[in-house]
Amino acid sequence: MLSLFAGQVAMAQKNVCRIVADLDEIGDTLIALVGENKYAFEAKEDGTFDMAIPVSKVTNITVMTPGTLAGTQRLFFPLIAVPGEKAVVDGNLTERFDITGSKFYKKYHDVDIFVEKAQLPLITTAREVNEQIESGKLKFEEAMPEFEKTMANLQATFNNELLNFVKNHSKEETSVPVILQITDPAIRQQALDALSQKVRNGRMKSLLSE
Fold first, then answer.
1. Is the separation of the CB atoms in 164 and 175 below 8 Å?
2. For the chain (length 210 residues), average pLDDT per consecutive 10?
3. Residues sharing a CB contact under 8 Å with residue 96, sequence separation 6 or more, in sequence order
4. What is this structure's pTM?
5. What is the pLDDT of residue 138?
6. CA nearest 163: which of 185, 143, 144?
């Protein structure tokens, strides 16, 4: 009976992604959306969350405050939930947060930083043009043609940087989240083709088919 119980515990752990969150100014409740299912978690006495998310396969989930679910806030974070792994989320949802944790999420963190840096020119350019339009230095109609051209070039550069990353890390599971951020279908296909068969047909397979 002890062996049977131990086996049941091990199976339960395999079908759970654990998320430990230490986030500022989010209240005492978080809700995880997993497909059509909702799971509510209460904060511990120290204000942190220790959430066991039921997932039988790798899947995209979203964790948010009740206010976000009701449409009165925008405090949430998306996460690739991996059964048997532990994610540690730390920071502030209105400014910056980081995701690390077990082996997969440690590598995921490094990939996240890479994508963030690659995306910075897009974000900076959009912010600068928006500020100039709001201040009256630029007119929307005049700014748009050049802005769209610039953004298209920056997006192409971004996509190619991600493609090169995948080619250089074709045997890493964390290349899959990178592929999913490539916006050009042709380049995304090149990245998929570069991915090793082991990764493509492994536990990340469900993520690629979502």
1. no
2. 43 80 94 96 96 96 96 95 97 94 96 96 93 86 89 97 98 96 96 96 90
3. none
4. 0.84
5. 83
6. 185
Per-residue pLDDT, 8: 43
SS3 assignment, position 159 = helix
200 and 208 in contact (C-beta within 8 Å)?
Answer: yes
Q: Are 55 and 61 in contact (CB under 8 A)?
A: yes
What residues contact 56, with CB distance under 8 A and at least 6 apart?
Answer: 15, 83
Place of tokens 């989320």: 89
- 172's CB contacts (< 8 A; 6+ apart) are 107, 199
- Give residue 3's pLDDT: 46
Alpha carbons 170 and 178: distance in angstroms, whole number: 11
The C-alpha atoms of residue 67 and residue 75 are separated, in whole angstroms, by 8
Q: Please say whether the beta carbons of 62 and 77 come within 8 A.
A: yes
Contacts for 63 with CB less than 8 Å, ≥ 6 apart: 19, 21, 30, 31, 32, 33, 51, 76, 77, 79, 89
Query: What per-residue confidence (pLDDT) applies to 195?
Result: 96
Strand, helix or coil for residue 89: strand
